[in-house]
Amino acid sequence: MVGLTKKKERIDQLAASSATAVVDPTDVESSGGSILADAWRRLRVSPVFWIGAVIISVFVLIAIFADVIAPHDPGELLLRSQTRLARNQLAPPQPGFPLGGDQLGRDLFSRLVIGSRQTLLVGVFATLIGFTGGLILGTLAGAFGGKVDTVVMRLVDVLLSIPSLLLAISIAALFANPSQTSVIIAVSVVQIPVFARLLRGQMLAQRESDHVLAARALGVKRAPIVFRHMLPNSLSPVIVQATLVVAISIIDAAALSFLGLGSQSVKVPEWGQMLGEAQQKIDSYPHLAFWPAGCIIVVALGFTLLGESLREALDPKNRR
Amino acid sequence: MLRYIVRRLIQLVVVMFVLSLLLFLWLRSLPGGPDSAICGERCTPDQRVAMRHALGMDQPIWVQYFKYMGRVFTGNFGYSSGVEPGTPAIEVFLHRLPATIELTIGALIFAIVLGIPLGYFAARRKGGIFDNLGIISSLVGIAIPVFFLAYLLKFVFAVKLGWLPDSGRQSTDLAQPATRVTGFFVLDGLITREWDASWDAFRHLILPSIALGTIPFAVIFRITRSSVIDVQNEDYVRTAEAKGLTTQVIRRRHILRNAMLPVVTVTGLQVGALLAGAVLTETVFAYPGLGQATAIAFQLRDFAVLQVLVLASAATYTLVNLVVDLSYALIDPRIRTR
């Protein structure tokens, strides 16, 4: 019996060594190009990637050229004369006003177009702040290990122990006057522990890897090892996560607006705010809620699709 | 195994301790803190000083912290000022708790009963129409804001079609008022044999459960699908086929069992999403649970209730994660022996 177990172990070892030989990095090299080129080859044929990319491009273009596209000032009560809330009357769609007016008589279409900017700002800035914060904490924990790692990770654990939206609400409540900035901060802080944990896990795996060991054996100092060897090799799952976080941030920001913790500005339209306002009257004018909600869903879907296709493309399991 | 449990419990205590410290600092830095909240807007500086003294806010910060911790340990969080004025915060929490547990269970049942079988069938016919439909609906499920979905369901099924009640936990026009035993309305009706009351409570749960359960459903569906796809290509499945086991046995014992591991983890993690989603769902459906209390407490700056809620949801979330880790051992004997 003992002999048999020994034999099994040897077979396992052999299998393991041959397995590593097969997925040797040189294999990727021989199939032509770097990890990125390899990923791009798989992305190029993925319909999921293209749908996501097209949605995001259209959305970004609209946000950039919003001033040109929007026919009217989103804050002006142009259709006020046609709006009678007491009689459940809103301005109907008409020439120049493709979607009609909202509950105050402002042009709904212009508000949607200009509103794309705020949504893009929230998504991008919240992700950038969360990403940077997580990068700093995760690098600290992953690079130094030991006590630094323990302290950082306990803090991360505490932040992760509060359900994300509740944490965002708690942070947003710290601001006396809720604004777009407070929403961005609230939504981004929630993402810091997520990024930190993800990056730290990757860095720890890198610490033990052969190329880091080789660099250390060659006498390379800690900083170059961390920044040139460990960090670049740990980033791809973090980048995937960042894409998904844009979508999460946009949805979370909408939720904050809905709870009355979002921007209170009457001048600058924002989809979450529009949705929140429309919901009080959803029985009478459902379309006021459906338009901004539809925009949020499509954009969030776009970023989710992009993130998912990136994840597939960068997954080493799919590499051939 | 026992050492592992003990270590995890100590970790839990550390996390809760740090959390209480953060919570204390957070409560102190909220705008319009307790002094101005109680004192009101027309508070003269003299009155404010008196109020701060009465609340112990003029003492050194560490004294305040120890006093605060003392109150936390004795469960004395003070009185609610906004949600249910005059009631001790802990009581507000306790008597709203069953409502949220009932809703959370409903949402989880919706997510699991739909997510696991659908994910399994999608994986078996990978690339088929069914698979693609499932993937699309789960992607939309993640992208749709919870509160909007809640409104949509309410608008279609309660307002337009009138099939289900649009708000609350119980109809006000019941033939006779329902007897309360446990605070779980569906269960109460079953215990006291007031079938109507139980059925009525159940009908009130359907729409909120679907709204709240959609994100967990999407996540569970996807993880089940990808896990089953991974497992069904494993060597041991091929071995089982080769040795002539029936398809049924292979599916049940070899594929489904092994595929369930990641599903359990992810389901556990969804509890966090449920606790947060409850804030939105309960607000939309005017469902008198902890989520609604959270939203109201924030709007009315009811700090006593808020700290109980935040502390409780963090504790629940951490505990659930512990239970999930331990339940691994139940499903996977390989971990048990380690």
Description:
- Chain A has helices at residues 2-22, 25-30, 35-44, 47-64, 66-69, 108-144, 146-161, 164-172, 180-207, 210-217, 222-258, 271-279, 286-314.
- Chain A has 320 residues and is an all-alpha fold.
- Chain A has a domain at 55-83 and 105-207 and 233-318: MetI-like (MetI-like fold, Orthogonal Bundle), CATH 1.10.3720.
- The radius of gyration of chain A is 25 Å and the shape is elongated.
- The two termini of chain A are 39 Å apart.
- Residues 1-8 and 13-31 of chain A have low confidence and may be disordered.
- Chain B has 338 residues and is mostly helical.
- Chain B has two domains: 2-73, no CATH class; 93-337, MetI-like fold (Orthogonal Bundle).
- Helix content of chain B is 77%, strand content 0%.
- Chain B has 14 helices and no strands.
- In chain B, α7 (146-160) packs across α11, α11 runs parallel beside α12 (290-300) and α12 (290-300) packs antiparallel against α13.
- The radius of gyration of chain B is 24 Å and the shape is globular.
- The interface between A and B is large, with 39 and 40 residues.
